[in-house]
Amino acid sequence: MIVDALRVFVTVAEQSHFSKAGELLNLSQPGVSLHIRNLENELGAKLLHRSPKQVRLTEAGAILYKHAKQILTHYEEAGQEIQMLQDQVTGSIHIGASFTVGEYILPAKLAEFANQYPQVNLQVTIGNTEEVIGAVRTNQLDIGFIEGETQDADLTVIPYMKDEMIVVSPTDHPLSDNIVVEKEMLRDQVWVLREHGSGTRAFSDHFMEETNINVKRSYVFNSSQGVKEAVSAGLGIAMLSRWIVRKELASGEIKELRIRHNHLERDFSIIRHKDSTSSMALNVFLQKLLVRTESRRE
């Protein structure tokens, strides 16, 4: 089908690489090459300059890329209108999410959506905020959930919900018996941190800089689960989303250090590429998420 060949061509053009395009489309490299060769034979023109490291569009390829994007958009829109006639929501959504959203908030939302729309194929990729932003920017993901915001000009940012950040400690930590702690008491402590690129790390770094908190020693983990386990084991204190530690706080495995006169919040945001097309499945998914978020704010 010509649409399949055009989709392969557009993906190769955007990834500048046959193998990367094949991975995204679940095609072998020979399969990708066959689609491109068939297009070149049909149009009677070379579409791509090939080299071992990179693929570039020829002049003819640039013309086809512009029109192929339009053809694929019209094809998707036609499919959506036909699905609406049949009153069915089908298709696939590839979602990216930061660790906090992906592991503690999104699963329940996806289960609810999947029960209502079982014909929609949902795929979730979890990474830190920078990784999610990068994947949405390169069209590897339809949407992304991130901690905080981004100033990337290629992306549209939609506010989703507020997230409370708290400082937690081991149960036997010297500060754990205080009803409230002053910010100054957090200085010269051992901290357990997320890696750079994480929204949680960016928030905690900003908090420490703003309150002039120097760190005695730090340990870095690349997941919030790792940070939480390290705190529980007595390694140090940490700043995490309340979503992540609510069960451990309830069971008494760790303690919350309540900071006097300080309520720490950040935003969870949804990001999309500005030039991306929307399937009916994605539109319905976003509508349900955002309607429920608005109802909670009222």
Q: Give the number of DSSP strands.
A: 11
CATH fold assignment of the largest domain = D-Maltodextrin-Binding Protein, domain 2
> Could you say how many structural domains there are in total?
2
Uncertain segments are 294-298
Comma- or semicolon-separated keywords:
D-Maltodextrin-Binding Protein, domain 2, 2 domains, Arc Repressor Mutant, subunit A, disordered C terminus, alpha/beta, single chain, 298 residues, two-stranded antiparallel sheet, elongated
Describe the protein's architecture and organization.
With 298 residues, this protein is an alpha/beta fold. Helix 1 crosses helix 4. Helices cover 47% and strands 24% of the residues. Strands 3, 4, 5, 6, 9, 10 and 11 form a seven-stranded mixed β-sheet that branches. The protein has helices at 2-15, 18-25, 29-43, 59-85, 99-104, 106-116, 129-137, 199-210, 224-232, 242-251, 280-297; strands at 48-50, 55-57, 91-97, 120-126, 143-147, 155-170, 189-194, 215-221, 238-241, 254-257, 264-273. Residues 294-298 have low confidence and may be disordered. The radius of gyration is 24 Å and the shape is elongated. The protein is built from eleven helices and eleven strands. The protein folds into two domains: 2-85, Arc Repressor Mutant, subunit A; 89-298, D-Maltodextrin-Binding Protein, domain 2. The chain starts with a helix and ends with a helix. Keywords: DNA-binding, Transcription, Transcription regulation. InterPro entries: LysR_HTH_N, LysR_subst-bd, WH-like_DNA-bd_sf, WH_DNA-bd_sf. Belongs to the LysR transcriptional regulatory family. Residues 1-58 form the HTH lysR-type domain. One of its GO terms (molecular function) is transcription cis-regulatory region binding.
